[in-house]
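Q: A reviewer asked whether we had any structural model of the full assembly, not just the individual parts. We don't, so I'm hoping you can provide one. Inputs are below.
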Amino acid sequence: MKIIDGGVTAPKGFLAAGIRAGIKPGSEKKDMAMIYSEQPAVLAGTFTRNIVKAAPVKWDQKLVKEQEAIRAVVVNTGIANACTGTEGYENTQEEAALAAGLLNLKQEEIAIGSTGVIGQQLPMDIIKEGIHQLVPKIAHDRQSSRDAAEAILTTDTKSKEAAVSVEIDGKEVIIGGICKGSGMIHPNMGTMLGYIATDAAIDKELLQELQKEIVEDTFNMISVDGDTSTNDTVLVMANAMSGCKKIQEKDRDYEAFREGLLYVNRELAKQIAGDGEGCTKLFEVHVEGADTKENARILSKSVVTSSLTKAAIYGKDANWGRILCALGYSGVNFDPEKVDIAFESAVGTIDIVKDGIAADYSEEEATKILSEEKVTAKIHVHNGEEEATAWGCDLTHDYVSINADYRS
Amino acid sequence: MKIIDGGVTAPKGFLAAGIRAGIKPGSEKKDMAMIYSEQPAVLAGTFTRNIVKAAPVKWDQKLVKEQEAIRAVVVNTGIANACTGTEGYENTQEEAALAAGLLNLKQEEIAIGSTGVIGQQLPMDIIKEGIHQLVPKIAHDRQSSRDAAEAILTTDTKSKEAAVSVEIDGKEVIIGGICKGSGMIHPNMGTMLGYIATDAAIDKELLQELQKEIVEDTFNMISVDGDTSTNDTVLVMANAMSGCKKIQEKDRDYEAFREGLLYVNRELAKQIAGDGEGCTKLFEVHVEGADTKENARILSKSVVTSSLTKAAIYGKDANWGRILCALGYSGVNFDPEKVDIAFESAVGTIDIVKDGIAADYSEEEATKILSEEKVTAKIHVHNGEEEATAWGCDLTHDYVSINADYRS
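A: Here is a predicted structure for the entire assembly that you could use as a starting point for your response.
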């Protein structure tokens, strides 16, 4: 596996564009994106578990279920098209129909993504004008992925892209993607949109099963604020244009592809976690020694979601009591008197807790380690062999500022 | 039932005191309290469900289980005596032994409460000196309850007291209490300590059963930040000194007592919710039309705990999408297209959502309603007959400031 510079246009045959349509008045930000595949791309998708689902989520779920392959995705920010009733769903269908007409495709070959304010109808005149602008702009180059990655952001501060190359059957296969996160990022997927493209050839059912499994250890292990959204979507599109042999079973080729797809999902997820609203650092929580994989996940997510722990990480405060406390209310059974905790960052590692009580450590040294941009809490519960990692960020003054009046 | 001005010294035979022992250097705040009953008081208690339990919680749980009655409680703030191992538990026992010696009681007649930083040992010299100071100060007057209520606070901004008088068997029975909350307040009880005293005569098992039931609808329905603590404790002490008939079964007397005890628990819980760290308003969430009582509780707690909703309430922003979203990820099944939402405060009520989509309302009017000190979200899910209320507060810049460096 080789990490490469690129995004959703890295694999063969994928084009993209990002433009400003003007959905949110007074902003200069790009707000609509399109991804296009020259050949039909087998589609897999994972979606929010929130029972309140936005119109585009319902549409994309239908495509994943009923369509073998699709050709394009249209995404807008500013308005989520959630809680918008029949009118909202009809607007999503209208978007797909318009893009299909312009691209000479069928309506069912166009996936739709929306993110932004819940409860408002899309300004369809602006959206339609945006689609008209997008179609002639799509291109298979580095910049076009950057434009698309920028266009799907909301309160994110950084664009998010990742790409790798893997060898399958002697041929190079590329996997690349873009995503947006920020606000409402949580286990079970927050307000996040992710679009991953690959020129691999793979069986649709196998791709769906694989992506579902990967999401559990990547996008479902990140948390910004504990809220899960109405619009979360990760789509994976595989258009076979690498010319490699079709992956049909869990063989060596599948394993090579799996490694690449896992990497892209995990990198995108970590970029989201480290770019939570107002956040100043990526907070990683690694739990070892759990009795089951699921319990390892629950424990690490409970710590990474704790507001008190996140505020302490912001304050560079080695307040391990809050970590033990968050483990304790997770619902998972363990012996608090067997827990070890260490903090780790680029400048070193420090043991903070041994057997459930404070180790003899220097607060000054701990603060130094907690001052880095990426901080890891390493927790051992000595209750078994399973482990899991969760990613989140610190809780800051800016988080409150951003969310106190998001709609204005 | 008559609401009266008073706290834990309102019932006959209860004395209290609050003093500054000096546990946290550089502070002028009172930090130790004592409550004392002239006659043995039947003891009931509810405790944190966190599996990491502080030493005083383990001690008090033992008393509730093994003792028919106790005589006094000693409380300190500054250090929680949690995650302190054998030394911590021995310190708790030593506190009880010292207070017992000075009061001419048995060690097992003294309950202990601690709240503050996790993971540090109590400064026993200061604690012991504090107990010596407390004993001669205890008094049965209004001010002594105020002193005790003040002494148990941590980052709370206001003292919390409540009292009522009820008539049982023709005699006046008083129920009064004090509590502290702030930070880590959540369903399943946050870092909160509550001490309720009554001069009623009641069977111990009946009191325990009643208090357990009441806590579900009061202290377990408040949330400040979703974290639950290692130290949460509510004790109820009944010393029979009103001279009323002993309550032995669920008769009319029991109902009168139940009403009073529920009121005191609920008032104290609401005072905690409205005084969360950095909070500017009490946020009440009332859910109607749930299929089960438990689901009504889960739905209302999910909304009151949502960071995004709480930040919107702080910003006086009628962002009902976040409320629908929080209902949607609660895990409770309902039809999002049947949900109605209204906001209510002292200045009026406004319908915001009808059948899952935006009602035709004035944002200006909504902001006016959301600007009051107490704001209620009234939610109807049209799925049954059950209802529940949860209390919380808004999420503010000051919450982050307080928790970024609590230990310094």
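A: Points you may want to mention in the reply: Confidence is low (pLDDT under 50) at residues 184-190 of chain B. Chain B has two domains: 2-273, 282-404.
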